[in-house]
Amino acid sequence: MSPRRVAVIGLDCLEPSLAFGSLAGRMPFLGSLRGRGRWGRLTSCIPPITVPAWMCMATGQDPGQLGIYGFRNRSDHSHGPLDTATAEMVTAPRLWDLAGRAGLTSVVLGWPLTFPAAPLKGAMVAGPLTPSGSRAGVWPASLGPRLKRWAGGEYLYDIKDFRSAPREELLEQLEVMARRRFAVAHGLRGLYEPELLMMVEMSPDRLHHAFWGDEAALAGHYALIDRLVGELVATLPPETLVLVVSDHGARTLQGGLCMNQWLRGRGYLKLKDPPPEPCPLSAEMVDWPRTRAWAEGGYYSRIYLNIAGREPSGAVPPDQAEALAAQLAAELEALAGPDGRPLGNRVYRPRDIYRQVNRVAPDLILHPGGLAWRALATVGPGPEPIFTAGNDTGPDGANHAQQGVLVAALAGGAALAKAGQEVQGASLYDLFPSLAAWLGLDAPAGGPGAAWDWLPA
Ligand SMILES: [Zn+2]
User: Fold this and answer.
1) Rounded to 5°, angle at Cα 100 from 105 and 145
2) Cα–ligand 1 centroid distance for 156 (angstroms)
3) How far is the CA of 48 from the centre of ligand 1 (A)?
4) 246: closest CA among 30, 421, 394, 25?
């Protein structure tokens, strides 16, 4: 019997209401996979962000277990700038580590949070955040020259300045990046014939942020992605289990909530010297001994308490930290938007939503307007306004949404049981136990997910 195989084709930010809804007609290959397989919405982690979401899939661990709460994290309780996450922070075994221990070969391509690329049984091309041309982006390093040959040009880890690049140029770059990534996938698959192929293509995410609302641009790129996925799946051995997944979806961005302005207005954050023009909050601007809380911006907000004995110049007595966190959460959940109606903020405490809380977690995690709004770190001369029409890191039409896509089917023509039926309640944490079971790997328990019972035994 030939060994079982898996191909995970990750499409960052692919939005279910488009892929299964308004643009389903532009994705005939995905439609054929859905018809002979199973499909549904895949609930992301909190926060639903590329880092840590893809690593939650690869390890089955939640962000608290990983100790990775976003692209950037506090490495200690000082007031210094946040550090960018790297692969070295991940200590949990990834699916490809388990595969290697069982003697199976893996190809890992473009998976976020894999830089610097590390040795494995197989090959790895690291994900976004890899500096272009870095020798540490590819393992084994001898593969480097092949990438360019397979890609027919420079292999693109990501698109630089995707919020500000000229639009026509950007749309073309997204296509070039996607074509080259899939060309490299073909090259690696042919060279290694892996039992486990795990790849992530970033262009749908960049597309959504830059072109949300531009139906022609979205439809064209979804159609391209569908062709590229179809061409790759056509080369896989028929018994390969193919998963097409996204780490989160996308939704219309209503505007920005300036969290530090809000904290200032309520007296939680004190500035020594307010800036003459709006700018991001920096540690130097803050009157720390009088500040009880501050926030970082992004697709979601991380709110930190300035606790005496934990932070330098901490202002909150440790025995009052709980009450302050509860008070902030209640005030934020009651916050009205610019139209006077409740904004719909969702506030989470790491210890309530994660199985463990490792490294330095935010004290509160905020999804502004349930992710209809973005969080901005900006402060201005005065504590008003707290709402903005745009984003502070460049124009952006979309925010992340809590649910991504899941399509599972065999590469060959054979249908899964209950083919075509929608799967309910799948989460990205389920991938790790499900794929480990499918491949017969011994996977550590402890994550929040469970193996899908609708996959063949
Ligand atoms: Zn993402």
Assistant:
1) 50
2) 17
3) 8
4) 30
Distance (Å) from CA 49 to ligand 1 centroid: 5
Q: Which of 395, 430, 451 is the last residue of a domain?
A: 395
- Centre of ligand 1 to C-alpha 244, Å, is 14
236-273 pLDDT, tens digit per residue, is 999 999 999 999 999 999 999 999 999 999 999 999 98
* Single-letter code of the amino acid located at 307: I
Q: Which residues contact 158 (CB under 8 A, 6 or more apart)?
A: 128, 129, 130, 177, 202, 206
List the chain residues with pLDDT less than 70: 1-2, 390-395
pLDDT tens digits, 203-225: 999 999 999 999 999 999 999 99
Domain that holds residue 65: 6-251+399-439
- Ligand 1 centre to CA of 372 (Å) is 16
Separation of CA 209 and ligand 1 centre (Å): 11
pTM confidence score: 0.97
Let me know whether 229 and 346 are in one domain.
no
- Tell me, yes or no, whether 278 and 221 share the same domain: no
